[in-house]
Every structure is written in structure tokens, then in C-alpha cells.
Design a protein that fits this description.
By secondary structure, the chain is an alpha/beta fold. Strand 3 and strand 4 form a beta hairpin. It is built from eight helices and six strands, in the order E-E-H-H-E-E-H-E-H-E-H-H-H-H. The chain has two domains: 11-136, Conserved hypothetical protein from pyrococcus furiosus pfu- 392566-001, ParB domain (Alpha-Beta Complex); 138-197, Ubiquitin-associated (UBA) domain (Helicase, Ruva Protein, domain 3), CATH 1.10.8.10. Helices cover 38% and strands 13% of the residues. The protein starts with 10 loop residues before the first strand and ends in a 19-residue tail after the last helix. The longest helix has 13 residues, at 29-41.
């Protein structure tokens, strides 16, 4: 999600999509479907251009695995569309670190988000081993679409959509998201500018008066 941090080691390396290691547990599958639909709309030349220009930022970790820190939704969409290889942009080589220190550094640079679909934090060994093991979080779908329709502004803060997803958990019933996504989005939009959301990245509601 967030590619901030030291960049001295940056280089481009081809990688198999199926071998990329996620650094989060969930995605919003609504967003994955949208990316699949966009891919289907591209001709052969445009697809080649998209692959050439969409680099997957990654950190080289234990076992020389590529741990991707962004583009999880795109990666899953491409796998489901039959794409096998992409280019990774290696941000750091931390493959020489012991696993405990590796994850400590990943957290230090805000390159990992080990939270499940209920918003609870998990141990790092609960992270999926492949992109196809990512779990759908309907609130992440709702938060992503909420930003797209102007409910809040795009922000550089790490995992901002996940923070909005956690906020929406107490605002919109999960059953409504699954049954009528548009209605759930309308409800989310109505509460996105409330004062109690002002701590969230990209919030654009009126400041409370004192």
C-alpha cells in the first residue's frame, strides 16, 4: 500500500505473479472486479503498455521472495485474467535479515498491514502466501468506492482506505453492502463528512464549531 522509505536499492526485476507475496490480508473484491473489467476493455497493445508501466513495488525478503507493498488489487485481477508475469520495482533488499527483524523493518516503514476482514490485527504468519489467498473485505470495497465518488480525498497516508473501512464498519451493516452495494454506498457517503470522521486521511467535512 505504501511505498515510502529508503530508495537506495530500487531496481526493476521481472517476477511471476503467482510467486509474489502479499503484505496485507484483505482486498475489496469490488475493486478487483472493476480492474478486471478495465483490463477486458483494453486491446492487445494497451495491455502490453499497462504491464510495462505498472510496476509492483516490492521488498526482497526471506527466501529471496518478493513481498509486494502495493497493487494487491491489480495483481489479483491480472492473475484472474490469465496474466503470468509483471515487473517488480525492488525498493529494498532485506533478504539477509532474520524473519523477526524483517517484519520489524517492514512495519517500521509501514510496508505491511496484517489486519483481517473484521479489522482485527493478526500475526505475520497469517499473511497470505499468494495473491489468490487474499480475503475479501466488503468494507474495503465500500471505502475504495467511497473515495472514487468523492466521499473523501485521495491521501498519501499509508493504508488510508483500510482506515476508512474500519470507520464504516460501525456505520453500514455488512448485509447491506453485500445485498445492495449502491444503497450501502449512499449511506457511507452520507456519513463520510460527519465530524467524528475528521481524524481520517482525506476527510473533507466541515470543521465542528466550538
Amino acid at each position: 500500500m505504501n511505498a515510502n522509505g529508503p530508495t537506495a536499492d530500487i531496481r526493476l526485476v521481472p517476477a511471476k505473479l503467482e510467486a509474489l507475496r502479499p503484505t496485507q490480508i484483505t482486498v475489496g473484491y469490488h475493486e478487483v472486479r472493476a480492474k478486471r473489467a478495465h483490463w477486458k476493455s483494453l486491446d492487445r497493445k494497451a495491455r502490453a503498455q499497462a504491464i510495462a508501466t505498472h510496476w509492483f513495488p516490492a521488498v526482497l525478503g526471506p527466501g529471496n521472495a518478493h513481498f509486494v507493498v502495493d497493487h494487491h488489487h491489480l495483481g489479483l485481477a491480472l492473475i484472474e485474467e490469465g496474466v503470468r508475469e509483471v515487473k517488480t520495482m525492488v525498493l529494498r533488499d532485506l533478504s539477509w535479515l532474520e524473519p523477526d527483524m524483517f517484519w520489524r523493518m517492514m512495519e517500521h516503514y509501514q510496508w505491511v498491514h496484517p489486519f483481517g476482514p473484521d479489522g482485527a490485527r493478526h500475526d505475520y504468519d497469517r499473511l497470505p502466501k499468494t495473491l489468490t489467498e487474499l480475503v475479501d473485505d466488503p468494507y474495503r470495497s465500500l471505502a475504495g468506492e467511497l473515495r472514487r465518488v468523492g466521499g473523501y480525498a485521495k491521501d498519501a497516508a499509508p493504508f488510508s482506505e483500510f482506515l476508512w473501512a474500519d470507520y464504516l464498519r460501525s456505520k453500514v451493516p455488512e448485509k447491506r453492502i453485500r445485498k445492495n452495494f449502491d444503497k450501502a454506498l449512499g449511506q457511507a457517503l452520507a456519513c463520510a463528512h460527519e465530524a467524528d470522521a475528521r481524524y481520517l486521511p482525506g476527510w473533507s467535512g466541515p470543521m465542528p464549531t466550538t
